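User: quick one, fold this
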Amino acid sequence: MAGQIKLHLLLWILLPIIMANIETSAAEKYCTFYKNHADYIEIDDMDTGLIQADNKTVICTNEEETCAAVWHNETIDGVVQIEMMFQGCFNEQWAISCEEGCRAVDAPTQLKEGNKTVHYCCCTTSMCNANVSDVYVPTLHPPFVPGVPEPPVPSKTNNKRTIIMAILPIFCLSIVMVSIFLICRLRLMAYKESLSELPSIESGNLEPTFDLDQMKLFNLVGQGRYCNCYRGTLSEQEVAVKLFAGSSRNCFLNEREIYSIGTLDHANVLKFYGTAERLGEDGWMEYLLIVEYISGGSLMGYLKDNVFDWFGMCRLAQTTAAGIAYIHQEIKNGGLHFVF
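Assistant:
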């Protein structure tokens, strides 16, 4: 009887110790343990628990602890391989999402040291971190990187303003160029009209001042804007015949009026013999003005074909100016006004 009492007392003493051991065993969680010292990173609440003698297993004694794994991927010969950095216990209060299997569901972290992209996973059952996987699916937008400002998005208003600022100078320049072209074109046309429309002197029927039968034309010696000049004879006198077409009748009348001044007689002015009109071979009226013939040719041709010294140039300029001054003085005295 005494022996039974001692047995019961021993059971009552050992029962709390046995229950405590049972509860401790129930709270214990085994995880795969690995630490790569070269790639290991220090994280708070990581590497907790009791490492077993095999150095491959760790016991997580805290109920809040889970199994966890940290790794990065290496591409070797085109094949992606997992390079494990840490396996062990981890405090669950910092875990974002833990499942029964160790799967990385969050975006990987970029480390400054070593330029590595680190993956992380945690799980709730024993030895669940022995096998890991990456199931993270990136979004369409890149992850936000602190310290790197996002590029500004140009607004539609700024785009329109830029386009207008680029087109406006080109448009204004085009208007200026077109305006300059039109002004130059109109001035050129007005200048051409002023050359072709010399002041006209109305005249009645042109009575010939010499006998056309006594005039003979030989060869063409010069051409001008309003007439052609021929070498010919008039009553055996060698003369120059200026032949005007019907469209240049006004020019003919102006020149005839100048030569018709009675006092027009100067050594530096061509002698005038007379005028006439006739029907040309083409059926159109022609106007003839006969003056003294100078064998040296035109002034332009003479200057091209001859070389002058200083005395010769001065004499040429003096005689030319004397003839022009005489003509202008006689026109003024005669009450006639022309635009040359």
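User: anything notable?
Assistant: The two ends are 165 Å apart (CA to CA).
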